[in-house]
Every structure is written in structure tokens, then in C-alpha cells.
């Protein structure tokens, strides 16, 4: 956080300039205004950073706990492959995504999720949620090589080239993380299909053996990939744990750049990743561009990304433990209501596309996207459905407007945010 000594010095300089010059020029006025704003906002920013760190710790704790539950279901499937165990693993994958997706708002803020300097030189995010992936690459890893944990980690990364790339696209050679696990559980989402992947059944699994049959390798792959994801979430949980003397959280709260990094990070996530690459990717009508195309979980992806920002905006979080504190809305001045309205718009998804358990479904109304995401995408190149219009002309622009509003807000805190890393339209 910016120290009061620095703020006092800047304020004093601004006052000195205003007193020594009969008519201050614009630069002097701006300096004085910036100093006054910084001084006024310092305590509030400190309160927000404290709430942010509490939410981060609790959110990552819940995500870790949920993936432990997923690993238990995967262990049951890879020990005793049955249709019931496959169904249970798929359901648990969906449930675990709900907590993890809310953590994505912490990205691009120079925190542990994407700063390798804080995680023993290894950038974790590409090992956890990278996409789109090349199914052919995963199949080659499964069928042609012995499966080991380190081998899966080493195989992750790089661009797909050659005939295995889906739809001739440049997907990534991804071997671990949420979407690799997703593919192993559901299989490919074929063109024109309006359900999750259907090519995988319990017959595709056998007792886990990294050098056994194709089915045994699939089981070993699935189990190892889940265990890898679990270990990475544990690292992130520990990084935000205030009870660990060597954790990141104490440095985060003391740093003079943390608040600026957060605003930049949220702007980049909203305008580049979430509202940029992920949402604009489906405008061409290609199912392969869905963020969670194999499971058809994409509506939940977008909803819980919005929920993650909602948590920080209001300074509250509801999970295994409830957090209530100081929200970003209290710092953004005239942009606060504008951003709050657009977060509400970004949440206009009815999560009714789950097939694994009806308990995950919501009752829909016409004001939010009610149809399956695949069905919605299929209308892009014909008569656009009402749901697609909500997505294309209301939700996606609202997410990008959040980034633009944060760009405007930054000036109130003495810094600026350019368009680098953003996909603004």
C-alpha cells in the first residue's frame, strides 16, 4: 500500500506549487488533485486489500476442497470403472468448477496464479485452465506413451500443428488441467452436436495402469491429471493463507503496487480473456471455441467468472465460510454504479444445461439465456436466437464495458491502463 509518508510528501508538494504560483497551470492542478485523491483513498484501499486477500484465501480453499472431492470420485472410477462412477466423476467436475471459476478474477494481477516468481519458478495457470486444447494430442499421449505425472506436466504447452488440430485451428498442446480432465471424462464435442461429448463411456476406463492397455492408461492419465490439479490448488491456497509466515498475503497487503495491479488485472481479464477471447470466440458459430465444449459447461464458466468479480465488487464471498468486508464499489466513484449494472448483466445465464444431476439446474425465465450453449451457437450463422442476441449484444459488451470503466477509473488513482492485453470492441 502507498505509505502515508509518501502521500504526505506528494500532497505537500502540490500545496507548495499551488501557493508559490499565483495561477497554477493544468499540471499543477492535476498534481494537487491526484495527491488529494490518493490521500483520501489510502485507508479505503487498505481495507479493500484486506478483504480481497480474505476472499482469495477462502475461495482458493474451497476450490482445493472441491478438487479433493473430485479426486475421490476419479479414484473410484479408475479403481472400479462403472457407468455410475463415471456419472459421479462428471458431476463432481461440474461442482468443482463453480468455486474455481470464481478465482479467475485474481488473474493478471501479478499474484501467485500467474506469477512464477511466487510459485517456485513455475507459472501455474497454464497448467490449470489453458484452452483450447488439441484432442488429437491428448489421444496420442494416452495411446502411444507410458503415463507418468511428470511426463504429463512436461508435455503441457506449445501450439498445435499438423493434422490433429481440431477444425484446422491452432489449439494448444495441453496435457493437464481442467480441460484435459474434461476431455477424458466426456470426449469430443462433435460438430452439430447439442449435448456434451458422448464418445466416452465406462468401457473406456480400466484399473489405472500407466503402461497398460489404452483404457488403463486413460484411467492413469485421468487420476494423475486430477492429482496434479489438486497439488496446484494447494499451492495457491497456501500462498494466500495468512497463518503461513512465508505466504504471499503479507507482502501483498504491504505492497504499494497491489491495488494498481488488481485494477489492471481485472481490466485485462474482463476485456481480454473473459469478455475477449472466450466470448468473441463463439461469434463464428464454432463449437470448438466454447470454453468448456466437451461438457457443455460454458454457461456456468461465464456465470461464475462474473460471480468472482461480483464478490470483489461487493466485498463479500459465500462458500464454506462467508466473508463480508470492503468492496471495490466503494472506491470507484462515479463508475461504481455503471460497473455494478454491467456485472448484473454479465450474470444473465440460466444454468440449466447440466445432465449429470438435475440438482444443478435452475428454473429459467426469458430475460436470461435459457437454452443450451451449443444450441445458441448453432443459430449464429442462421436466424439468431433470442438467447444468442442476449449473449452477443448484451452480455459480452457489458463485460468489455467493465474493462473500459476500469480504464477510466484508473486516472483517479494516479495511473493509466492502456489496451495491451485487451480485446476491446
TrEMBL record:
Keywords: Signal. It is found in: Cell envelope. Residues 57-339 form the Imelysin-like domain. Its main location: other. One of its GO terms (cellular component) is cell envelope. This is Imelysin. It comes from Leptospira wolbachii serovar Codice str. CDC.
